[in-house]
Amino acid sequence: MANVELKQVVKRYGSVEVVHGVDLEIRDNEFIVLVGPSGCGKSTVLRMVAGLEAISGGEVLIGDRVVNQESPKDRNVAMVFQNYALYPHMSVRENMGFSLKMRGSGKDEIAAKVNETARILELEPYLERKPSELSGGQRQRVAMGRAMVRKPDVFLFDEPLSNLDAQLRTQMRMELRKMHMRLATTTIYVTHDQIEAMTLADRIVILKDGYIQQVGSPIEVFEKPVNVFVAQFIGNPPMNILKGTYRVADGRRIVQVGKSAFPVTEGKAESLKDGTPVLVGIRPDAIKMGDRTEKLPPEWLCSGEVVVSEILGGQSHLEIVIDGENELIAEVEGRVLAHPGETVPIGFEFDRMVLFDPETTNAIV
Ligand SMILES: Nc1ncnc2c1ncn2[C@@H]1O[C@H](COP(=O)(O)OP(=O)(O)O)[C@@H](O)[C@H]1O
Ligand SMILES: [Mg+2]
């Protein structure tokens, strides 16, 4: 059990700085997901916590102890890598017990811990097999088991599901979530996959170019992104971003997008002046179409022309052009068969609209 803290953590490779003063407080038992595009510094941050990479500046604390100078084995953290790094010539049992053996634990103790972990991970039937005799998902569980037997203070995962096919990934995601509930161990999990971040995290940390963009619960970063980057990185399809102008007319605050007027919720963007250009962010699932728009006031509606529609099973995605210029992706419930060129009435949940400054791309609160 441990909290983890990063204070102004910097990483330089030679003269190139790749992580720029990262501050982050991770609570005991929390599941934190670091997410961002490839090359943004996720693995580097994780490896500095693990002790696999020297820290160029700032401090890393584990359980209130500064660990900058501690070797990886003294930090009591366990890391699971994307490629599992299992020993091919050892059985599952030997792989899982290896770190305990290296620490000089006795045979009985190792057997007890390996058996207990194998039971939790449902690996008991495979203990005598070699990694080559296992499926990808089973190997993945062995890699986790190897990390778990030591009862570390912190689990560190670096894209552990990237090598699995889509179905197995979904299944392992659920397993990880259940395992975390059972073990309640502080976890830092790195991925470039925003769905993994949304489904696994207590809090998500979004990184870009070695800078933290936003830290928040999955719902916070989804509904209240701090900038256009977060708005489009989180969520699939990404948030729609339209060009508009903020207007105040007859005491009504609206955003004009093409010929359409979207009302601005009270308390939002109060500081804006009439005529200010804005970017308007609307989540695809905040767009309603067809008879579902009936309960919305008529002035909120506009019509759009369907470019293409896709049915995903229970939901449909529609690409729609409004006023002949602004393209939107709508995610609507049910199977909506719309023909290209067809005009459909659409409405929005305007209280979920987010406005951004076109110059800084930061959200206007
Ligand atoms: N050993 C290294 N030497 C020089 N640059 C490195 C090294 N490792 C990583 N980098 C650079 O640091 C940045 C962050 O890398 P990394 O943390 O691996 O990104 P991510 O895990 O988010 O894909 C990248 O620009 C990468 O090229
Ligand atoms: Mg990486």
TrEMBL record:
**Highest taxon, organism lineage:** Bacteria
The record's annotation in InterPro entries points to: AAA+_ATPase, ABC_transporter-like_ATP-bd, ABC_transporter-like_CS, ABC_transpr_MalK-like, ABC_transpr_MalK/UgpC-like, Mo/tungstate-bd_C_term_dom, NA-bd_OB-fold, OB_MalK-like
Q: Which UniProt keywords apply?
A: ATP-binding, Nucleotide-binding, Transport
Any one Gene Ontology BP term? carbohydrate transport
Domain ABC transporter: start-end pairs: 4-234
SMART domains cross-referenced by the UniProt entry? AAA
Quote the Pfam families the UniProt record gives: ABC_tran, OB_MalK
Q: What SUPFAM superfamilies does UniProt report for this protein, alphabetically?
A: MOP-like, P-loop containing nucleoside triphosphate hydrolases
Q: Name one GO cellular component term.
A: ATP-binding cassette (ABC) transporter complex, substrate-binding subunit-containing
- One MF term in GO for this entry? ATP hydrolysis activity
Q: What is the protein name for this chain?
A: sn-glycerol-3-phosphate ABC transporter ATP-binding protein UgpC
Query: Which gene is annotated as encoding this protein in its UniProt record?
Result: ugpC
